[in-house]
Input
Amino acid sequence: MELVRATSIDQLDGGIPVHGGTEVVPLLRDGIMHGDTLVDVRGIVPRGIDGGRIGAGTTLAELAADPGVPAALREACRLAASPQLRSMSSVGGNLLQSTRCWYWRQRYPCRLHGGDRCHARDGEHREHAIFANGFCASAHPSDVAAALLALGARLRTSRRELPLGGLYRLPDERDRGTTTLAPGELILELELPKVDASVYLKAMDRRRWAFPQVGVAAARTVGETRIALAGVAPVPWLLDGAEALDLATPLPRTAWKVDVARALVRRAVESVS
Amino acid sequence: MPELVLTVNGGRRSLDAPAGMSLAQVLREQLGLTGTKVACNEGHCGACTVQVDGVPILSCITLAHMVEGEVTTIEGLREHPLVAAFVRADAVQCGFCTPGQIVSAAALVAARPEPTVEEIRQNMAGNICRCGTYPRIEEAILQWRG
Amino acid sequence: MARLIRTEKEVEGRFEEVWLVVEEDPLEQWPEGPLDVVGRPAERLDGPARVRGEARFTADLRLPGMLHAAILRSPHAHARVRRIDLARALAAPGVRGALGPGEAKGLDEEAGYAGAPVAAVAADTFAQARAALHAIDVDWEELEVVLDPQEAVAREQFTSEPARHERGDFDRALAEADVVVESTYRTAVVLHNSMETHQAVCEWVGDTLDVHISTQYIWGVRAEVAEAFGMPADKVRVVCEFMGGGFGSKNSAGEYTFVAAELARRTGRPVRCALTRREENTAAGNRNATIQKLVAGARSDGTIVALGGEFVNAVGWGGWSTMTDGPMRMLYACDNVRTVCYGAKINAPPMKPFRAPGFVEGTFGLECLIDELAARLELDPLELRRRNHADSNNGTPYSSKNLAACHELAQKHWDRRREVRARSDGTWKRGVGLASQIWFGGGGPPSYAWTRVGSDARITVVTAMQDLGTGTGTAMAQIAAEELGVSLDRVEVVLGDSARGPYATLSAGSSTLPSVGPAVRAAAADVKRQIIEIAAQRYDLEERVLDIRDGTIVSADGNLSVPLEELLGVLGNAQILGKGARGPNPTGMSVNTFGMQVAEVAVDVETGEVRVERVAAVHDVGRVVNPLGARSQVEGGIIQGIGHTLSEVRLLDPGTGRVLTTTLDSYRMPTIADVPEIVCEFVDKPDAHLTSLGSKGLGEPPIVPTAAAIANAIRDATGADVHELPISREEMLRALREAEQRAREGAKEKVGAR
Output
């Protein structure tokens, strides 16, 4: 294996981009990611916070500590992962993290791995999705993505600009991926519009250092409140109002997540209004 | 093998390490600094915590070649007042996680010499102790200056 | 004098009749209360080495030329190896040796669970060994799989004969009871997760085998390895100076030891075999799941007249069926009891003892049931427990029992109930619950210690025990210092090496201190006697008027006061050697530990979040040697208990039987942020019948009542009966819904009655 320190985007050239390495290194070891070339992209991804512009190389710890960052994002960062991981991981990398689904992590031949069934649906799925779980019941674990989705963040990549929601796609028969990022495309910057109020609430089964069972972000701009959820669907989930929880399609052992989401959504909406 | 230059506990070390090698491996196997423990080897438990430029990171999932900055391990913190504070408070049972706890705690008290309980809990939550010395750790950090 | 006795020996709640050679321990017990060193807080002697990262664990050992072994594990929950071909693996880069089924103890043709060890490879690096596993070609014959413990029971697929206990006339008593409560409780599989994984480094030196191992039982490993290799036990040297936690999972040698030893034999090189965290969480043991169908009957005055329980222990493919009915049989005075424990043999990873095995699970069920009974009787739960206090263990007297004193000490914590409930606000409901604890912990013979005093007047205690990190080594030093009349800094304890010390018991079953402690005291007394003999001759005084206090030889009349080092200066190169042995346990007595914990919780009734806010623990373990270390044991046990209660669960894939929660992001142990305020109190009365020390063990008792106390606090806060561990949000919300439903139906009934 070779490690290249990129000074320009061209050097990506089919290599695996690595920034904090908190996701890439374990996935390489597990054989879930493959490649002979790692490309250290720290030299080409901007880092730092400038008003509403956030370099994708900014760490979660830096975001959590900056009082200028909207409350929902700050709180999502503060409650994400462990202190060490927050110091290591970039916000761009965080958006691209994979599910914690134990079947996927253990390389069961599941749909996300190109297989023909979702092992979680007939197996242990108490931490899995309550929305869009027909094809794959994995839950997206990023607190940060939910916060950014509610905040209406836009991304600038090495090729395009897009709303954060556009980064994600639900996996289907033809394409098992959960992002729209092209090979060799890098997230460079985030842009946050101004919001009047925002909040992030997180249910986990220990007080710190756990992925969200349900994470709820809410952000209010003028009269409009946007709500986004973590841990409830294969991708970060924009919720079209609290009533949209009635449309959840929980699995036998994830019905409880709907109850939790209901309570947290109500609290989040109350908190920002 | 590619050459690797690291500054560890104030000393410059030059060695050969493959690109995929973790910092923990380099420290333990090549430099003999076995105070840094590896308990899960996948970034989940904090036993392998070291500082890079004063910031606690997980050496088991850090590629040694990506380290930019000065590495401080438990061997570089042996004279830190926290060590005595941990012994005084009995903040050690089996001791396998303890060096990592010291490394995290040292960074905390450097940034916040008088941390609150809430700050201790927020900043030490990435260091798992199966023996359950947490209340003692909290006490040790609250009274780290003796 | 050595004496041969026939006695009952207990380890982790398992009893057997054995012949034992014991030596009498003629020393009188020390008076109650803190002494000069014993009973006073002592920093642990090996604390600095552990905190500074200087302690050498098995994981840190690197021998010249050392190879690394990796183990091939079955992907199937039940299968047999038809054919296996190691040739490709042997040809892989760096590989120096490989073993197939039957070539080392623990590697078997039949795999009874996914993760069962079948083959192994040793290579220059661990990565090479791991890679070579993929080159082992196995032709598997898949066999029938049973994962459901109740199906195993129905098929009578047991690990051992069902264990039945019956006393009195259960059926009649239950029929005549004024109030009967019935409930079914379930507990999940939880994992030990010692921070240092199971591992051994083996090296042959001539015809001697050195085994460096992270173990709770040096002498057990020595015997197992010697037997496996057909060699004299003294040719096996087992070393474990520092170990990174065990909690019951490291009581025996394990396949990793035999694999390392055999590969070392074949390659002529030292071999390390260390489990990865994922292997640790698959195949290194667990606290097995249980299903407990319980019933209790009482008279309206609160007298418990009948207790019954059907316990299913989902043991796994190996291991043993624990005494899950122990608390039901022992905790209360009840004449009519009927229990049965089924050990279900299923195609799941084998259990291993885990900190009070069986009693943690059984106490959860029983103590929840007792609170449901209290609610039906409209009796205060603490009062109900007082009224049913067992004065004897079904007729056998206790060597000491201060549970009533625990109740008294717990009262003030229990009395906080009204104030705690009043702090409920919004969706957060608060409440208080309690639970009692009974467990073993008396230890027993044999265990030995040697002592050595030289002209520097320092004492070295040598005993081949192991200190898991509990601080028992420091307690031994305190005992020796106390007996000898010197300060703690004059004592050295040498442990952890079978070639450098006499036999000491396994560190399990809360037995290290009560077993080895008295031997250390006797060995210290032996050198003290000799020092006094020397002093008597040197100063021409009678031995009976001499004593050692504070490092000084003194006479009763106060005329003589000579520092020990001055007296012992005469020794030159001579040494005073002492030895001591653990005497027998009291005959015809039941030796147990007792306690009570009071938990305060807050429950968010909308989200099912449970926060434990305070746990007060009161324990009766005889004399407390080191209050500082004892508090750590209590806190550690409670915190592990909180993990078992709220967040820890091992999950198996129902399709393949493979463990899903092998990593520490999915198997969630408590962090520092999960810890409540913990208050720790001891009755601290020496057990007058148990050894010259009067101490029992404390490693296990604190984890026993925690789950039940929390569950009972949840009931107090919300009215919801939780029936399952862990109390996940799913379970909490289910119990809340059920309670709401009950309340609605109750209201309807009341309306109907009008």
